Amino acid sequence: MPRSARLAVALFAAALLAGCASAPSPLRERVLSNAERLIGTPYVAGGATPKGVDCSGLVQMAYARAGLRVPRSTEEQFRRGRHLDDVQPGDLLFFATEPDRVSHVGIYTGDGQMIHASSGSREVRKVGLGIPYWKSRYIGGVSYIDG
Questions:
Q1: Which CATH number fits the domain that encloses residue 68?
Q2: Where would I find the NlpC/P60 domain in this sequence (predicted)?
């Protein structure tokens, strides 16, 4: 299945589940809250501090502040996580922004959006996933959160 179709299916399933599911778990809420507090933080390649983060550093910080350990690199975060067909808020979305490799990660917030550290805008942002850029580069979702 093409990447864009996988993202569309995952987001559609997540939207359907959101309509009948309860609110995100307290742990998922903490991850999301931590990520939202980092919106506006400068993008710094290799960064994992409040002064600047890259995409995997953002994930590592948001999860660590919620009491969860995740690997530092995007590739390891993708490889070690529990792979999903249906993502929930707080799960991770992975993209191939460079040819033939997992090279970008964002935290799914629900409603077809994610929080990610953008090298293009040079800061942490919340963005919609419905644009062709993300759809065509989507690789898959993983979770480090039970339930």
A1: 3.90.1720.10
A2: 25-145
Question: Is 104 in the active site?
Answer: yes
**Catalytic-role residue among 55, 87, 114, 124:** 55
- Distance (Å, rounded) from C-alpha 89 to C-alpha 21? 12
DSSP state of 97: S
Burial class of residue 45 in the structure, from the number of CB atoms within 10 Å of its CB (0-12 exposed, 13-18 middle, 19+ buried): exposed
List the domain range (segments joined by +) for residue 128: 3-143
- Rounded Cα–Cα distance for residues 82 and 105 (Å): 15
* Tens of pLDDT, residues 46-104: 999 999 999 999 999 999 999 999 999 999 999 999 999 999 999 999 999 998 899 99
Q: State percent of the chain over pLDDT 90.
A: 78
Total structural domains in the chain? Answer: 1
The DSSP result for 28-52, as a single string, is HHHHHHHHHHTTTPBB-TT-EETTE
CA distance 11 to 116: 17
List the catalytic residue out of 28, 30, 116, 135: 116
